[in-house]
Amino acid sequence: MRTLRSYALVILATVFAVIFFWFRPGGVDGPRPAPVAATGVGFDHGAFTVVLQQAVGPDGQVDYAALRADPARLDDYLGRLRATSPVSAPHRFKSDDDRLAYYLNAYNAMMLAAVRDHCPVEDVQTVYVAGGLFWRVSFLLGEVKTTLSDLESHQISELARQHPAVHFALVKGARGYPALPRAAYEGPTLRAQLDALARQVVHDPAFVRRAGDTLQVSMIFQWYLAHFGGDALKWIQSIAPEVAEGATTVEFIPVDGALNGRC
Questions:
Q1: Would you tell me how many other CB atoms lie within 10 Å of the CB of residue 152?
Q2: Can you tell me the distance from the alpha carbon of 55 to that of 50, in angstroms, rounded to the nearest whole number?
Q3: What is the pTM of this model?
Q4: Dist. CA 177–CA 164, nearest whole Å
């Protein structure tokens, strides 16, 4: 009897070990294009602008089928990210804005590649159990393995308090986020780009709309409320007083998780 119990415990432990290994964070390798060494001074995001112009249509929809049919441009940019990062080459990223621009572009490029490689997709949250696309699929930044969740919760979150609009710049493959821009973020212009994004969001009824004296706002504000100063209404007032004028309460509305494009 004791032997049977021992066998059962061994089998149970083996099953748990297999499950843990299978669902380990970063356990699914994303694309691994050859590294492309940086040249000149700083880090050139021009290659990602080319990708965005290839993939993002005038209506803001992403053509993942085009990325799948012609993966070379996105893979080239991923190769540049693989070769160089603010950690592996800090001398190329002189300011927080340089670093944040790199991480925002890296996140969006990784998201594009993850969806591209898993098409057909209708909702990125359902590709793997428990939103695993964000924490199971790994990429290389400066030859260091990372996931979308790692990148957001560590490198990006650390810098997001300086400008909460960062949370609208991370486009998570869903319609409930602003459309990807058709140009990469750049350190020298990042503040202006994020300011413009903040104004765009608060004037877009998909994210902020009036219902009497209530402002109905995207749940993105609730998820990152601490970064918005703990008060979404006050933050919106600081960006566009006319939008929030007379509003006394805030109601959070769900984020549309449907894919932001076509596979």
A1: 18
A2: 9
A3: 0.89
A4: 14
